[in-house]
Amino acid sequence: MSLLSVRDLDVHFAGRGFRAPPFQALQKVSISIESGKTLGLVGESGSGKTTLGRAILGLTPATGGAIEFEGRSVLGLSRRKRRALSTDIQVVFQDPYSSLNPAMTVESILAEPLQAAGTGRRDAVIRIRSLLDEVQLPVDAGSRYPSEFSGGQRQRIALARALALSPRLLVCDEPVSALDMSTQAKILELLIEIQATTGVAYLFITHDLSVVRYISHDVAVMYRGEIVESGPADVITTTPTELYTQRLLLASPVADPGRQALRRAAWKALPQRPLGVGVPETAITT
Ligand SMILES: Nc1ncnc2c1ncn2[C@@H]1O[C@H](COP(=O)(O)OP(=O)(O)OP(=O)(O)O)[C@@H](O)[C@H]1O
Predict the structure, then answer these.
(1) 148 torsion bin: left (phi>0), alpha (psi -120 to 50), beta (else)
(2) What is 2-103+166-239's CATH number, 3.40.250.10, 3.30.70.270, 3.40.50.300, 3.40.50.150?
(3) What number is the ipTM of this complex?
(4) Pocket, ligand 1, Cβ cutoff 6 A
């Protein structure tokens, strides 16, 4: 049984403006995530990645389909049951600047979820120490404020807070997009290490295929609210069959200028007709 199973999920938003029809942000989306594994969710801006993450977290209501966590339906749960589930599913957002309360010390930020779950003071102190160690921050970080840390360090604090209650699934919504390349690599390394020691699963949302290739076991590609292609990361990020994924792949930058020029030429050679969902194309090896 999968840890998380999403089947035929639909999400509509009310139309903007007088008599505007509802906007369908997700259409029959199906994904599954195994315990301890990472599913990378890629797609360009506006394709529906965050909406899917929010629906899984219970922050955006689904209008159709099913979401199951460990075989149990999570849609339509009472508030109390949903709260119980929120210890199992946590989130890390893109922006470590706005997601941490600047008026609270790191210790109080990490204590918050622990106190809400009824952890006693002494146990909370021990847990906070071990969390700081887990995300490789010094113990004295606890008495400092978020503004005293770099972007990468703030993302480590946000990660520690998300891990406080030992979730089974972490929704990572563009967690490294606001960071420079070398900090990105360090945070990705850390996420991989944490997964190896805790067995947490990730839904890793990004627009960047090079990031997704690095961290994911499986990849699902979104386009206009639909999953157009999914499968093992090494297949999807090297020999995708969908034209949309091929374009995404060739648009993702590589460090070697020679390879980059080849990619640019290959991208230009792709059919530039409008994309239809489910259009099979010849595979491209990069
Ligand atoms: N609360 C909302 N009300 C109306 N429309 C919304 C709402 N939230 C998202 N949308 C629309 O749904 C579509 C998908 O948005 P979403 O944020 O899920 O995309 P995304 O792939 O995560 O994009 P990005 O990478 O830029 O964050 C967009 O067209 C967006 O404008």
Answers:
(1) alpha
(2) 3.40.50.300
(3) 0.96
(4) 13, 23, 25, 43, 45-51, 207
